[in-house]
Amino acid sequence: MASVAGTLSDRTLRETFSREGLETIVRDALVTFAEHPELLVPQDKAVAFDLVASVLSAVAKVESFNVRPLASAAVGAALSGLAKHPELVDSRFGPHLAQVSGSLARLVETKSLSGVEAADLVSVVAEAMLRNPVLFARRQPDVATRLVEVIVAACGANKERLVAGAALTELTRRVLGAFARHGMGFVESRTLKQVGDEVTAVLESGLVRASSELGRRLDHPEIPAILAELILRLLRGELGELDPESENFKKVFSALADALPRRS
Predict the structure, then answer these.
(1) β partners of residue 214
(2) I need a surface site. Which of 67, 120, 155, 243 has the fewest CB within 10 A?
(3) Alpha-carbon distance 146 to 239, whole Å?
(4) Other beta carbons within 10 Å of 136
């Protein structure tokens, strides 16, 4: 329990989360330890406590009280992930989750995300890591963090804000899910920058078309599904030209929109 005491006494963490907030996060972590005592076996004990400390430290690098929901969600997702998949103890699951938590905290600090949105997104990332640990938890560099960053940036740059809040969480879940199922070859054949650039181009072009087709071929809740299908086609090498005004891209987008289940 010395690690717990050290976490509670860490000045930087207390300044970011407040002592009360930090105690709540640690208390929730202790509940997880009680439910999964296997996390505290001698060989894994240090890893579990270090994971909590690394996630909190990454989030605490920003000066914002709005990151507390993110910290709580990240710690919970990290420990829950290790409890379900103890084989990831020696992987980059913990460091990558800490990295994405730090990145999301910076987005909260710059008001690109709310604390609640960031908390939802870190849970989605942890879920995706468990769906494909080889791609997301055992590779270097960190693919998941880069994908989240470009998704948030592309959607944030859209003037109409067509994808925000719950829609942003849904889009991120779908895109990471597409990569979990079909992204290995795509990632292996590109640098991390190239991956980010191509995903950004698809999302930006898709949002341009969504803006044009809103109320004609689709409504607002359908936009994340269409954007994710565009990403899936990118991963399969089926998309072609990414210019939103090209006839090919318009045709692909229209076909995806027309294929959506009709709703009253």
Answers:
(1) 218
(2) 243
(3) 21
(4) 29
For residue 236 the two structure tokens come to 């399969």
Q: Is residue 163 a contact partner of residue 207, using CB atoms and an 8 Å limit?
A: yes
| Residue 1 in this model has a pLDDT that exceeds 50 | no
Say what the pTM is: 0.84
Which two three-digit tokens encode residue 260?
A: 């959506």
Indicate the burial class of 100 (C-beta count within 10 angstroms; 0-12, 13-18, 19 or more): buried
Q: Using the predicted structure, report yes or no on whether residue 9 has a pLDDT greater than 50.
A: no
The residues, ordered by sequence, that sit 6+ positions from 160 with a Cβ below 8 Å of its Cβ are 207, 211
Give the list of residues 6+ apart from residue 172 with CB closer than 8 angstroms, or none. Answer: 121, 124, 125, 147, 148, 151
Banded pLDDT at 65 (limits 50, 70, 90): low
Task: Residue 36: count other Cβ atoms within 10 Å of its Cβ.
Answer: 16
